[in-house]
Design goal:
Blueprint (H helix, E strand, L loop, with lengths): L1 E6 L7 E4 L6 E4 L2 E7 L5 E6 L1 H35 L7 H10 L8 H9 L5
Bound molecules: zinc ion (ZN).
Zinc ion (ZN) binds next to helix 1.
Length: 123
Amino acid sequence: MRITVHQTGSDADLGEQHCCICRQRFHLGPVSCRAFSGPAPEVLWGEVCSACVQGGPDYIQRWLDSFAWSARMSAAQKTEAAEEGISDCPTLDEVLVAESFYERPMFRTPEEYDAALSRGEIL
Ligand SMILES: [Zn+2]
């Protein structure tokens, strides 16, 4: 991966961005750092925040290692799901009937839902 310094392209690019490394929001000003990887043509990852630049290569490498681990886990889970196949799936008619029956969610707040779930009152 290469991280390079650029003059930000236009006024439309200024403002809040998500760092392509740590995913945190940051304010992009007239200077931007961009991450590229791979052989030509390189893949542009996006803008890099100043915290990641300040953290340096080791800090950024830890984020990349974390992404790689997450990607491997996600790929393994998706592969397992694909190999499992679909054992049950409602029809659209069943969904529409359920929508006409349930007019609102079970609880008003996520906390009420979580409490009922932890008490075993719902599945
Ligand atoms: Zn960052």
